[in-house]
Amino acid sequence: MVQRMNPVEIEEAVSNLALEPFDAAEFPFQFLIAFDNPATTIKRLRTGSTNQSDVPGGVLQRNNIHIATCAPGAVDDTLKALRDSPKTASAKAKFIVATDGAWFQAEDLNGGGTVACTYAEFPDHFGFFLPLAGITTVKEIRESSFDVKATGRLNKLYVQLLKENPDWASIERQHDMNHFMARLIFCFFAEDTDIFLTEGLFIKTVEQMSAGDAAMTHEVIGEIFRAMDTKPADREAADLPRYASKFPYVNGQLFSGSTEAPRFSKVARSYLMHIGSLNWRKINPDIFGSMIQAVTDEDERGSLGMHYTSVPNILKVLNPLFLDDLREKLVEAGDSPQKLLNLRKRMARIRVFDPACGSGNFLVIAYKAMREIEFEINKRRGEPDRRSDIPLTNFRGIELRDFPAEIARLALIIAEYQSDVTYRGQKEAIAEFLPLGAENWITCGNALRLDWLSVCPPTGTGVRVTSDDLFQTPLDQAEIDFENEGGETYICGNPPYKGRNKKEEDQKSDLFALLGSRTDKHKSLDYVAAWFVKLSDFMRYVPNAGGAFVATNSICQGEQVPILWPIVFSAGQRISFAHRSFRWANLASNNAGVTVVIVGLSSQDGPRFIYDDGQRKEVGVIGPYLAAGSDQVVQPLQKPIGDRPQMYIGNMAKDGGHLIFEQSEKKDLLGKHAVPSSLIKDFWGAQEVISGVPRCCLWLIDADLNLVLENDFVRSQVDKVAKFRRESKAPSTRDKAPISHRFVQLSPASGKTAIIIPAITSENRDYLPVTVASDGAVIGHKCYAIYDQPLWVMSLIASRLHWVWIGTVCARLELRFSYSNTMGWNTFPVPSLTQQNKADLIRCAENIVLAREAHFPATLGDLYEPNDMPEDLRRAHEANDELLERIYIGRRFRNDTERLEKLFELYSKMTTKPGGPTKVAA
Questions:
Q1: Spatial contact of 361 and 309, defined as CB atoms under 8 Å apart
Q2: What stretches of 498-551 show up as alpha helix (H) in DSSP?
Q3: Are 695 and 663 in contact (CB under 8 A)?
Q4: What is the C-alpha to C-alpha distance for residues 865 and 414, in angstroms, rounded to an integer?
Q5: Which of 782, 781, 827, 787 is nearest to 804 (CA)?
Q6: Residue 373: in which H helix or E strand, if any?
Q7: Torsion angle of the four alpha carbons 897, 900, 905, 908, in this order, in degrees rounded to the nearest 10
Q8: Which helix (DSSP H) or strand (DSSP E) does residue 611 occupy?
Q9: CA triplet 128, 139, 68: central angle to 5 degrees?
Q10: Which of 29, 444, 775, 827 is the most exposed place for a label (fewest CB within 10 A)?
């Protein structure tokens, strides 16, 4: 597999290109190379075999870019020529670029964005062109060349220092190395934002004092760090070098403890100088913090520069959790001094707690949003220069990994300073910034093993560190007081997902420790489910609390629902708001985002909101499947609700392949081997349903034993089955060796005709691939079947309504639907059908079958490709849906959300009436 460039590598390549002397003939090719185009592509463009440009000096890459260099002063005309070129349109170019080596202009022909800058500045816009490398990132990364550039430079330094200081690469010194990097980042930021009072103080001092010998670099840095941990009153006794004494006292535990630095070679020192030359005023703590996580994780460095959770996605959690309410109260307050004061006091007491905080994105965004609201309050009250009443220590977090925990606190410190500069001015911000507070409010530890009440207590004194903490504060430190008593607590974040089958051993252990005494099915839960249990436990003891997490949508689907949500609901919590499934596309397209939901919990009464496709809907109740109207948990049923036939699982062979044959082998079975035709039946498994071609099988029942013994071929196949079963590792299979003439598990029913549905099917199809088999076919155990019933049954299964229902209540195998008779069919709520309804549905099913047959030999797999479904087949399904949906509500449903809400409403009515069906144990 070819290793693709990440954004950091692309930024570096583009920056290096801009430093080279401008070569008009070579620039287009070097530009494409910088954006990860392979050598073979460039070679074909150079020779003209694929370059169809009709603009002088132009290079046209189909489906990508039309780029041209030009004479000085001709950039505007050249860009127009590229825009008007027929070749640009016919080649479906996404971008056009024109440059004369002095000026640079570009357009995104799809998105409409433009770039116009000097040639030297075009690397600052490298994110604009990332789609050229197949990378589609969130807007913030495209527009933040600084954060990507800084991440790349720090990564180079980090790797080089570990190479030159192998002892610092050990597990024992990993914290020291990470702590050193956090100190450097603070120094770079502080010297560029006047916190050190002298611009460039840190990097210029290191450069000057180590100029003669790079090997001195670590000593110079160590002394500077020591100075920043020395109070002014202690400086004379500390005997600091003159160059270090210029640095202010910082403390805040950031520079406490050992001030040792790793040794620097000339190469490492040059990397340090390059980092120091960047303009750290441009740092965005919520972007940079996420990106920098990958620097210290060898496994993640391949995706360097792509780690970021966009602000809009984070606000999908924070806005409905509490920020929307604060903004509404601000509107209600108007210019009333007392109401504004009350709101400001309320905000000062709000605690925001992220128990999986990573580098602090959620905390930083929450803090910045609250500062913005507070500034508006102060402005309306005539106090625009007032110092903030919102303390950083009210923004608490837990993070498992050492370095992100360091960065989380640092990101909050930077966010506070930047907010002070924005709302109060540079002078006031600097005057009150140093020294940093010594408190530690980001705890490094396992959030599923820590007591959240010890990190974020409801009232009174607060944090007692219960694991290795952020800046090596002693474990017997004094507890940290919340600066303001009482108030609300909001828990939020994006905990680690880890699907049920991808959990590591320690994560399985975490789940057992938390849930082992509450359910014996905890192994079936995704790892993220544990955070909702911890959240519900925490909220049981904390008044005025609300919480919301991002989670895989699987916790609100299928088998996980009856395991997780009764535990949460039993703690007194209910779902207060929810974002239905959407793509958390925070990374690049080559590392696609996962499908997620956002679920908010509260024990308080109040309005509840469902967010779907950008729309907000107020509802009375939100259920665990994120449908409105019912909070019922669907349990498997022994029999179908309503008047519908029974569905059965198929027959399991466990034969080692000796009883089932390809259809092409049937002729030899009958002729060459003289197998009686009565012993051969068509066989339909899941794959056979999708392909439309059944295999065949030897169907031998106990009454056929004499026939078995009489035929040498059949007897030899039975002997092979017996051998396979005897040698199996599964005791249940070995036990079936004595009955090797037949399948190990027989379906409870059979018939002349069968309506068949595969047990596993792709979620990408718009309808379930249901089909009909006749002549007493044998149905395999990877299918479910309804025998000898009219086609109106097929109409129900083939409907969009049924697709929506099973996609919600049935289990998932990865993303694929895992169908179940007890969960998918038996629970499916269908209104009472008249004879006329059934006759109409039969006609619809027949039309679906006829539309399929019109495309013979196309298979169900071919016919139900989402983007290639034949129009007549789609019309037949639409007609079936329209008829069925009119039976439900008298009209078509507007969307799947409305379908699901109606289905749950009907399910609730049908399962709670007296004498309703018996539930199977979960």
A1: yes
A2: 505-515, 529-541
A3: yes
A4: 51
A5: 827
A6: helix 361-380
A7: -140
A8: strand 608-612
A9: 10
A10: 775
CA 751 – CA 681 distance, rounded (Å): 12
Go through the chain and tell me how many residues it has: 922
Q: At what angle do helices 145-164 and 266-276 cross, to 10 degrees?
A: 160
Show the tokens assigned to 337. 């001094």
Reduced to 3 states, what is the DSSP secondary structure of residue 717?
Answer: helix
- As a whole number of Å, the CA-based R_g of the chain is 33
| Spatial distance between the Cα atoms of 98 and 300, rounded to a whole number of angstroms | 36
Task: Residue 829: name the closest of 733, 910, 745, 724 by CA.
Answer: 910
Adjacent-strand bridge partners of 683 = 695, 778
Backbone angles phi, psi at 115, to 5 degrees: -130, 135
Q: Is the Cβ–Cβ distance between 773 and 684 less than 8 Å?
A: yes
590 is written with which tokens?
């080559």
H/E stretch holding 154 reads helix 145-164
Tell me 832's DSSP state.
P
Angstrom distance (rounded) from CA 500 to CA 554: 10
Show the CA angle centred on residue 692, arms to residues 687 and 698, nearest 5°.
Answer: 70
pLDDT means over runs of 10, the chain (922 residues): 72 92 95 92 87 91 94 95 94 94 94 90 89 71 72 89 93 89 91 89 94 89 95 92 94 84 94 91 77 68 57 92 97 96 95 93 95 97 94 92 86 92 91 80 91 82 41 38 72 85 85 94 93 96 92 89 94 94 58 76 92 90 90 90 94 96 94 92 95 93 77 93 95 94 93 94 89 94 96 97 92 74 95 96 97 95 90 96 97 92 92 54 30
Amino acid occupying residue 847? N
Q: Amino acid letter at 854? A: A
Question: Is there a contact between 900 and 889 (Cβ–Cβ < 8 Å)?
Answer: no
Q: What is the DSSP string of 215-275?
A: GGHHHHHHHHHHHTTS-GGGHHHHT--HHHHTSPP-BTTTS-S--------HHHHHHHHHH
Residue type, 146: F
Report which secondary-structure segment, H or E, holds 707: helix 705-710
Degrees to nearest 5, angle at CA 779 with 776 and 784 = 120
Q: Which two tokens stand for residue 622?
A: 């939100």
Q: Strand, helix or coil at 643?
A: coil
* Rounded Cα–Cα distance for residues 34 and 10 (Å): 6
Nearest to 686 by CA among 652, 718, 725: 652
Which tokens in the block code for residue 35? Answer: 């954006």
Token duo for residue 799: 């409907």
CA pair distance 565, 784, nearest whole angstrom: 28
CA separation for the pair 814, 212 (Å, rounded): 60
Residue type at position 535: L
As a dihedral over the C-alpha atoms of residue 791, residue 797, residue 802, residue 805, rounded to 10 degrees, the angle is: 130
SS3 category, 762: coil
Closest CA to 745 of 657, 649, 606, 817: 649
Calpha distance 589→448 (Å, rounded): 31
- The pair of three-digit structure tokens given for residue 446, joined into one six-digit string: 């396992």
Burial label for 664, CB within 10 Å (0-12, 13-18, 19+), is: exposed
- Closest residue by Cα to residue 561 from 922, 905, 242, 103: 922
Max Cα distance, the chain (Å) = 107
Query: What's at 391, amino acid-wise?
Result: P
Rounded to whole angstroms, how far apart are CA atoms 331 and 380?
A: 11
- Nearest 5°: the CA angle 155, 160, 165 is 125
> What SS3 class is residue 902?
helix
Query: Tokens 């952020």 appear where?
Result: 470
Q: Are 820 and 634 in contact (CB under 8 A)?
A: no
Residue 358 token pair: 């990573």
Burial (CB < 10 A; 0-12, 13-18, 19+), residue 139, is exposed
